[in-house]
Structure formats: C-alpha cells, structure tokens
C-alpha cells in the first residue's frame, strides 16, 4: 500500500492520505513512501541529523582524532559546562556559548618544563603551553575565561599553600631574539593534588581585541624550591591544562509551553514522541553532551474544526473563517497541515576536527507545540 505523506520539518500530515490535493500548500514537499512506521521514523531521524550538521556548518560529521577516554575528568563529568538554559534562537546557525581549547601538541614535552627567569617569578620551576584560539573567537563577546591545570603533589615542602604566577611569553622583535614576559595573574592554592582553575578573562579579551589567537602561557611555582627540576603541573594526556571560554550568554526567558501530546488512537493534530539517540546514529564519538534528546514531531488531521481548536495555532481564527466561507466551499481548497507552532533550541557540546570542544546552541531543534497551519 502506498501513501502520500508530507515530510515537512518536524511534521507530517496524516490527513493527506490517498489524496494528493488535500494539502494544497504542501504539494512540493510531498514524498511517495511506503506506509511503514520504521521507515517514517528513519526519515525523520535523518532530517534531524541533516539539520544538526547544517546548523553546525558541517557537511559531514567531523573526523575526531581525540579518543574520549583521553579527555580530562572535568569535561567528562560536565563540571565546566554551562547549564542547559532555555533560550530563544535568532537565526538559523548555531551560536557558540562555550569553547574548550587544549594546548598545541606540536611542542615536545621535554621543552615544556623550564626555569622561569624574570623580575616577577625569579628562578623558579615553570612549565609553558601554547594555545591556538579558534577564529570564531574574533566575532564573539567573551564573558568568562578560565585556565584549568592539574597540580601534582610536591614532596618535602613545608608551605600549606602554593603560589603560582601566570604570564604570557612573547618576543619584542619579529625575529624572536628578545623575550617578553607579560604578567597575567598570581594566586594561591591549598590543593595538594588535583585540578586548579584561575580566571584569565581580562587577558583573553585583550588577545581577541588585538586579533591575536596564538599565545604561550607560562605557569611558574614561586613557592617551589629552585632545586626542583620541573613545576608541579601535569602534562599527562588526561591531565593536561585547557582553557574554558564562555561567550555571548543570552538571558533566560520563561516561555509558556503549549502543546497537545498525542494519545493512543488520537487522530487530531498533536505532538508525538521522537527521541534522537546519538549513540544509535553513530555520533557518540564526537557529541559529548547530551547523549540524546527529545526532538518530537507533529502528526494528525487538520480537516476538522475541532483539530483547529485544540492545536493552539495563532492562525486558527483566520483558517476557520476561510473554511466556513461561502457555505464551506473553500474547504477543499484550503486544508492546513499539522506543523510546529513553537520550537525550542538544543545545546550541543561536541568535538570538531581540530580537537576543539565547543558548546553551541542550535535554534529550532525541539518541537514544543503543534498546530494546523
């Protein structure tokens, strides 16, 4: 048995079964498919997949070379993530809310440890990392920026607290002969061993303001003995430092959710369940959070006045007047489709091809309400 369905975004018009002209406004979007629920579900899932890629400006899933098992625990546990706030979306493409940047792997580990030698830190054990900020940082407003690093335990030290000095290493000349050391921050910590974070928002905003994305950061321990050959900062793969940068937060808006969820045997326009599991579709290797989400879709009949009443569409009054015009003769000409009337954004935390972890808000990815349009 063959059936005509309308495969609009997040919607289906089951009132158009066996009548191609029942949904006159959707003719160009019709698809001749086999009447099979698994097939329709597969088509809907594929549509959602294409929307995610398109809104991330990707033509295909990124080729990630970073195994998830090597990520630092604060990322795996979600400790550095922004809460999933409900936000309206202004445009089609996703907005960057958070970026996690790892050090450049091109520098050999043996050259990262050294002794600092400047008027701020003196001759103290230090470690240096180079970070490359993504180009999109030039077009966003940074609201917070933190440097995270794993402090190793220091043996034979009497101090209860350790003092660290952050500075940026650069050169006064283009030839790189005269080194320049710019102070960034100084702080104390009583953590003997574990993750430490410090605020570097001022410096990151300064970098972006100067349109410079390549920076080397030195972490020096001023309370460590000069006899130590290295700073107590780990460079192990799962404990390596990283930057967490938050951008463009949008104010939370509490919007009323109006939707009529589908019930068994319900034929009127309603919102039905559609769960996208990123593991099932083979995307769990590059999407960190969430592991899946409820996308929903719209289905049902829009051929009766009752369907227009319960659908909650803002155009109900106009449509009902048109349907009853001239004694109902307009009914066969204007039959609305069951479509989303309210959509919500989706927040994704993912790894791109440059092994940069990014959190983006994708607009219009969750159906909140359906109506006859």
Automatic annotation (TrEMBL):
Q: Where in the cell is it found?
A: Secreted
Q: Write down the CDD domains for this protein, in alphabetical order.
A: TGF_beta_INHB
**A Pfam family name for this chain?**
TGF_beta
- Molecular-function GO terms, alphabetical: cytokine activity; growth factor activity
Q: Name one GO cellular component term.
A: extracellular space
SUPFAM superfamilies per record: Cystine-knot cytokines
* Alphabetically ordered keywords of this record: Disulfide bond, Glycoprotein, Growth factor, Secreted, Signal
Which InterPro entries does this chain map to?
Cystine-knot_cytokine (IPR029034), TGF-b_C (IPR001839), TGF-b_propeptide (IPR001111), TGF-beta-rel (IPR015615), TGFb_CS (IPR017948)
Coiled-coil stretches noted in the UniProt entry, renumbered to this chain: none
Under the heading PROSITE patterns, the entry gives:
TGF_BETA_1, TGF_BETA_2
| The organism's place on the tree of life at top rank | Eukaryota
Keyword Disulfide bond annotated:
yes
Keyword Signal, does the record have it? yes
TGF-beta family profile domain residues:
255-373
The UniProt family comment states: Belongs to the TGF-beta family.
This protein is called what? Inhibin beta A chain
């Amino acid at each position: 048995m063959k059936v005509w369905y309308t495969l609009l975004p997040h919607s289906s018009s089951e009132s158009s079964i066996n009548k191609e002209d029942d949904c006159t406004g959707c003719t160009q979007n019709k698809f001749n498919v086999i009447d099979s629920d698994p097939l329709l579900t597969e088509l809907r899932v594929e549509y959602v997949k294409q929307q995610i890629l398109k809104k991330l400006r990707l033509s295909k899933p990124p080729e990630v070379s970073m195994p998830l098992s090597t990520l630092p625990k604060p990322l795996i546990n979600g400790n550095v993530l922004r809460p999933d706030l409900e936000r309206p979306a202004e445009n089609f493409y996703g907005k960057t809310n958070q970026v996690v940047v790892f050090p450049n792997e091109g520098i050999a580990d043996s050259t990262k440890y050294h002794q600092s030698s400047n008027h701020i830190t003196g001759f103290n054990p230090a470690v240096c990392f180079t970070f490359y900020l993504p180009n999109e940082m030039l077009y966003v407003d940074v609201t917070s920026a933190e440097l995270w690093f794993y402090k190793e335990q220091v043996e034979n030290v009497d101090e209860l607290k350790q003092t660290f000095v952050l500075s940026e290493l650069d050169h006064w000349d283009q030839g790189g002969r005269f080194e320049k050391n710019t102070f960034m921050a100084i702080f104390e910590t009583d953590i003997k061993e574990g993750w430490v974070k410090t605020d570097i928002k001022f410096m990151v905003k300064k970098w972006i303001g100067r349109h410079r994305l390549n920076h080397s950061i030195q972490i020096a321990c001023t309370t460590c003995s000069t006899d130590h050959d290295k700073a107590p900062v780990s460079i192990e793969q799962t404990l390596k430092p990283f930057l967490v940068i938050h951008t463009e937060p949008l104010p939370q808006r509490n919007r009323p959710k109006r939707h009529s969820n589908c019930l068994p045997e319900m034929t009127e326009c309603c919102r039905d369940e559609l769960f996208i599991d990123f593991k099932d579709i083979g995307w769990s290797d590059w999407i960190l959070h969430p592991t899946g989400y409820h996308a929903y879709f719209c289905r049902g009949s829009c051929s009766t006045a009752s369907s227009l009443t319960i659908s909650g569409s803002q155009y109900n009054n106009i449509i009902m007047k048109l349907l009853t015009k001239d004694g109902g003769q307009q009914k066969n000409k204007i039959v609305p489709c069951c479509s989303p009337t309210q959509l919500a954004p989706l927040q994704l935390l993912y790894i791109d091809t440059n092994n940069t972890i990014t959190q983006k808000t994708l607009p219009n990815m969750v159906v909140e309400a359906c109506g006859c349009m």
